Here is the input.
Amino acid sequence: MGQFLSNCSADALATAAQALKNGSLVAFPTETVYGLGADATNALAVARIYEVKGRPSDHPLIVHIAELKHLDQWISDISEYGIALARNFWPGPMTLILRRSELAKDFITGGQSTVGIRIPDNSLALGLLDSFHKLDGAGIAAPSANRFGQVSPTSAKAVREELGDYLSDSDLVLDGGPSEVGLESTIIDCTGERPRILRPGAITISMIEEVTGVKVANSFSEQSNVSKEESIRVSGSLENHYAPKAKVFLDKHPIAGSGFIALEHIETPDGVIRLAAPKTVEEFARVLYEALRDGDHQHIDSIYVAQPTGDGLAIAIRDRLSRSAKGR
Ligand code: TXA
Ligand code: MG
Here is the structure.
């Protein structure tokens, strides 16, 4: 079942860090989505992540660290533009794919020579990472805390809904309220001459180009550039991901009895159940996953979404929605 901690005092975070050290799982909030954490150097603990998520075991995991100075031990080298990205956007909703060191074992990287690293921007996550570091923990491996292929959780309640049946009594779930960004981090491959976006998110192409002075390599487009082999590895890029139980339809006129998600200025057609009416693209990202879950709670069969247009975060929203729509 997993034990829920909603009062995350320093003591509670120390308890959670110790639980990680003991090989238990700790789900925790980040600014993007909630993660399901394990000691990134403990093969048995990491194996439990795969079991609890029901995720194929060759999919790599992101290692979360507390501070930039903890990066070196995980990687073997980093380019200048990689350093610029790390300095400018960490802590933040960005994961860098870098060449791994000995510490990043195959059970983290899915056997690849690279490792994904992130410093999240959330006080509970940073508090947990800091307490874990004080116990000589090197980093916390954490995928989104949902069952494989489902919608990522943006609240502790959603974590319970996804994983409650699979967690054991010694596992913990930290409640830090709703995630501020609401979509998973931007994943940037930093192993080539230019940064390459593997998964779009809140750190956008123009932000990357501005701080690095380097043009993004074959920028992420909605027709993904990711090669076949890579799309097996980058599980978030598989079709049929981020999918609620309801069937998702994009940019079509909603039929009566269906759910509807659209920016506030778009009216709700008669007989349609409005699940969200965000005022901005940022709010759209923040509430999207919760709105999809809400549709499932209301046993709605079909959810229609009017997608936000434009660049930046809207690209990430359309990326996730196109996969949700292919889901079932
Ligand atoms: O916002 C986030 O990134 C959240 C929070 C919890 O940090 N985490 C997250 O993890 O979304 P996950 O495992 O659900 O998605 C991470 C994606 C996966 O598609 C994985 O395949 C990819 O990152 N990934 C991890 N390491 C990689 C690597 N070395 N090379 C390529 N892709 C990698
Ligand atoms: Mg995920």
Remarks:
- Residues 222-232 have pLDDT under 50 and may be disordered.
